[in-house]
Specification:
The chain is mostly helical. It has 7 helices and no strands.
Length: 170
């Protein structure tokens, strides 16, 4: 995927996933995806392997189903009204379909249980993933250590610790 398509891919997944996430594990997965913010960590550096995601072995099947549901909701344009652009569905939807297909083929034997423990252990005490999963007041998405993925993408304040400015909800 191009860098621009990658931004759109994560934006729509974070929007739909934030709207649908109920459990701690589901919220953790969306925050982890949202941390793949090219505006904060660099263009072209946010690729990942499904087995590296912070899966909880105890809830893997439910969480995999949740992510597939979030993909479907993204294709139904859940939350897109919060974007300042209209995603190109002809380019985006095949990528979402491929992600759903890859997830569908994933089984618990392929996950790395230590990935969740390592990710949480690396979090600072005030990291949103450890602080009750605050949300952006404007976009209602789950915040990351970098702030709001959508605010960052739109260039609104570039919230986050890396910029030395805290998101108002943190």
């Amino acid at each position: 995927m191009s860098n621009g398509l990658t931004d759109v891919f994560f934006n729509v997944l974070v929007l739909s996933g934030s709207a649908l996430a109920q459990s701690v594990e589901q919220k953790q997965l969306i925050v982890w995806l949202a941390e793949h913010d090219q505006s904060r960590v660099g263009r072209g550096t946010v690729g990942f392997d499904l087995c590296d995601m912070p899966w909880d072995p105890a809830t893997f099947a439910e969480d995999k189903g949740f992510l597939i549901q979030a993909i479907s909701a993204a294709k139904e344009r859940l939350g897109w009204e919060k974007l300042d652009y209209q995603p190109n569905e002809d380019i985006l939807f095949p990528c979402l379909d491929l992600f759903a297909e890859l997830l569908s083929g994933m089984d618990a034997s392929k996950i790395q249980p230590e990935a969740l423990k390592e990710w949480l252990a690396a979090a600072e005490p005030d990291d949103p993933v450890l602080c009750g999963f605050p949300r952006c007041s404007k976009h209602q998405i789950l915040l990351t250590v970098f702030g709001c993925h959508i605010c960052n993408d739109q260039g609104v304040g570039r919230f986050g610790r890396a910029a030395g400015v805290r998101h108002p909800a943190l």
